[in-house]
Specification:
Blueprint (H helix, E strand, L loop, with lengths): L23 H31 L6 E4 L3 E8 L11 H19 L5 H23 L9 E7 L7 H18 L9 H7 L7 H4 L31 H7 L9 E3 L5 E3 L1
Antiparallel strand pairs: 1-2, 2-3, 4-5
Helix pairs in contact: 1-3, 2-3, 3-4
């Protein structure tokens, strides 16, 4: 009988997210990741160019009263104006994030993971460009922030992309969605023993026991329990000579009597 592989994908599983998919699927997810990253990077770059050209420092532009404003701030620190004295270190971290995301993206099969990583990549590239090419110099450039919402620190499109992408990735991880498109719970169920509890309840078939007579169910003299009394033909064949059979007969092993 030909065995059936347990790795065969289930019908309800997305064909693009099957673990045994083709090599074209990771390339498609990488394209999606790069498309999201390029779109967010372009949006961040365009908005920064417009803000630098139209808004002067210290002169906010009201969007929704005093709650939402556009104000030009040059930030030497990380997202939301954190770690302002470590510009060069943040530049190296951003470059490492870009390289790491690109490496992971080559093996992705999940579209949601591709979108989340695309957001992180697009935001990291946007702020990295500022640190490399804006004043006061390479690796020391100040990032352009311009969105002010209430008490929240001033941020830009790149900061929003990084935060939203990270939130999506954390959510996928919490609910068990893997980068290869599978769920941790489904993967654990697939790796469980195929027999299950039913295999433990099966009892051996007495008819299949070679030590028993399958046709009558009677046991042979050799299989009798120790100390049990002989019955039937066994009694007659074993006690004949002992009782002094007048015919001088003896019993053979098959129960037939022969003359002495």
């Amino acid at each position: 009988m030909v065995g059936v592989s347990e790795d065969r994908p289930t019908p309800e599983q997305d064909p693009d997210d099957r673990p045994g998919g083709t090599a074209a699927q990771p390339r498609q997810r990488l394209r999606l990741l790069l498309l999201v990253a390029a779109t967010l990077f372009a949006l961040d770059l365009i908005t920064k160019v417009i803000v630098v050209a139209r808004i002067r420092p210290g002169e906010p532009v009201s969007v929704i009263g005093d709650v939402v404003e556009l104000v030009l701030i040059r930030n030497p620190g990380a997202a939301f104006s954190m770690a302002t004295g470590m510009t060069w270190l943040l530049t190296l971290i951003a470059a490492a994030v870009v390289i790491g995301v690109l490496r992971i993206g080559r093996t992705l099969r999940s579209p949601l993971w591709a979108i989340g990583l695309g957001g992180v990549l697009g935001g990291a590239l946007g702020n990295l460009m500022d640190r490399l090419f804006r004043a006061p110099g390479p690796l020391q450039g100040h990032v352009v922030d311009f969105v002010s919402v209430g008490w929240w620190p001033v941020f830009n499109v790149a900061d929003s992309s990084i935060v939203c992408g990270a939130i999506l990735l954390v959510t996928l991880t919490v609910f068990g969605y893997e980068p290869d498109g599978t769920r941790y719970k489904d993967k654990a169920a697939a790796e469980a023993p195929a027999g299950g509890p039913a295999a433990e309840d099966t009892a051996p078939d007495p008819a299949a026991d070679p030590g028993r007579d399958g046709s009558t169910g009677d046991t042979t003299p050799e299989d009798a329990a120790p100390g049990s009394a002989p019955t039937g033909a066994e009694t007659s064949t074993t006690t004949g000579p002992l009782l002094g059979d007048p015919a001088g007969t003896a019993a053979t092993a098959d129960g037939k009597e022969t003359a002495a």
